[in-house]
Amino acid sequence: MQRINEEKKVSLVLGSGGARGITQIGVIQYLVEQGYIIDEIVGCSIGALVGAAYACNRVVELGDWMKTLTKGQVFRLLDFTNPRFGLLKGQRIIDKLHTVFDDVNIEDLPFTYTAVATDLDREEEVVFTTGSIYTAIRASIAIPGVFAGVVYDDRFLVDGGVLNPLPLNHVTKKDNIIIAVNLDGRPNKETGLVAKLNPVALLQESYFAMRRRLSILTLAHYQPDFTITIPHDSAGIWDFHRSIELIDMGYNLAHDILELEKDTSLKPLRETPSATP
Predict the structure, then answer these.
(1) 30, 2, 8: which is closest to 251 by C-alpha?
(2) Cα dihedral sign for 182, 118, 168, 204?
(3) Residue ranges per domain, the chain?
(4) How high is the pLDDT of residue 165?
(5) What is the pLDDT of residues 177-191, one digit of tens each?
(6) Coil vs helix vs strand at 125
(7) Catalytic residue among 45, 140, 215, 234
């Protein structure tokens, strides 16, 4: 399917995936350089954070800070708490982010911004389109068992990626070019290695496989115009010390995928994702 969009307005969907999400900063940098107008952002987890920084006109500053992180600095941002509620409070990270961009009300942003979290009791998505952007970020990044969940409006909220790691269903501007950044691409690892893993690692790989299939089904159903796919083993959840490499990766992958647009007078070309998990 092909559509004409002369103004190159974009609805950008940013997925969840820990440090792999830093690639999304590079994607945004490429889009801006090429004259795309990001008119809407829908994000969950790390995607909600990166999208918020861009909405507040501070994504470059976020990237600059991320590029300075070492393993030790990442560790010092982890504020351990009572493991009954989650290994980490998450407040130390939020406090640091406040030095990068201020809290604002979502409805006051210059374009449409949506963050997605999960109500674990009701097993349903919770969508933030108004109110404090930091409340939305904190709820959306609350990885179960890692960050303490957030009690909000009588709901217990955790990471939006639990139910919807690539929230394409919340795009509202259907006439825009829809670009999705899928952080759950197939890993580059050799086949046959999974059988050699210990039980905990095997359980983790099984969870990752479920996420990948969910993302594939979402892409097949909603069919964004372009999908920028990040291999699942590009980075571990805490590999923020590799931000320079990851931002470059996102920039280069965006370039590779969006070069397709320059080869057609009808913009953009809608691609259909593979059904292979």
Answers:
(1) 30
(2) positive
(3) 9-262
(4) 96
(5) 999 999 999 988 766
(6) strand
(7) 45
Whole-number pLDDT of residue 19: 96
Whole-angstrom Cα distance, residue 83 to residue 81? 6
Q: Which helix (H) or strand (E) holds 47?
A: helix 46-55
Question: Which residues have a Cβ under 8 Å from the Cβ of 27 and sit 6 or more positions away?
Answer: 12, 179, 181, 228, 250, 251, 253, 254
Q: Which CATH architecture has domain 9-262?
A: 3-Layer(aba) Sandwich (3.40)
Position 192, amino acid: G
How big is the chain, counted in residues?
Answer: 277
- Residue 159 bears catalytic tag: yes
Does the pLDDT value for residue 5 go beyond 90? no
Q: Which of 16, 119, 140, 159 is catalytic?
A: 159
Six-digit token string for 243: 């931000």
Rounded Cα distance, 250 and 183, in Å = 10
Query: Whole-prediction pTM value?
Result: 0.90
Query: What pLDDT, on the 0 to 100 scale, is given for residue 188?
Result: 83
User: What tokens does 65 get?
Assistant: 């800070």
Alpha-carbon distance of 30 to 20, in angstroms, equals 17
The partner residues of 228 in beta bridges, in order of sequence, read 181
Q: Output the DSSP codes for 1-27.
A: -B---TT-EEEEEE---GGGGGHHHHH
Q: Tell me how far the alpha carbon of residue 197 is from its chain's centroid.
A: 28
Radius of gyration over alpha carbons of the chain, in Å?
A: 18
Query: Is 111:23 a contact under the CB 8 Å cutoff?
Result: no
Dist CA 268 CA 265 (whole Å) = 8
Count CB neighbours of 174 within 10 A: 8
Classify residue 141 as exposed, middle or buried by CB count within 10 Å of its CB (0-12, 13-18, 19+). Answer: buried
| Residue linked to tokens 């292979």 | 276
How much is the average pLDDT of 14-41?
A: 97
What is the DSSP pairing of strand 112-119 with strand 124-128? antiparallel
